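Working notes for the structural subgroup meeting. M.R. asked for a predicted model of this chain before we commit to crystallization trials. I am recording the input and output together here so anyone reviewing the notebook later can reproduce the run.

Input as submitted:
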Amino acid sequence: VPLLALAYHPKTIDFMKQFSLEEYAIDDSNLEYAELVSRFNKLRLHVDEIGENSFNRSRYFSEVISSDLKTVLNA
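Returned structure, recorded in token form:
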């Protein structure tokens, strides 16, 4: 699900970077209405592309975790 993240901690931006979505993470100390509306509108315009990319990244991470787990269990 495409989202805007309010970055209350650096880990929020790191999480969004994993999905190449750091431009949709807004530092809560710099949160302004106009910026929030601007990023929301950009998100809305690209929601299908962002959703597909996020789904593909999630699938990739799932495969890596599954492979690593199988490696550990078979060791």
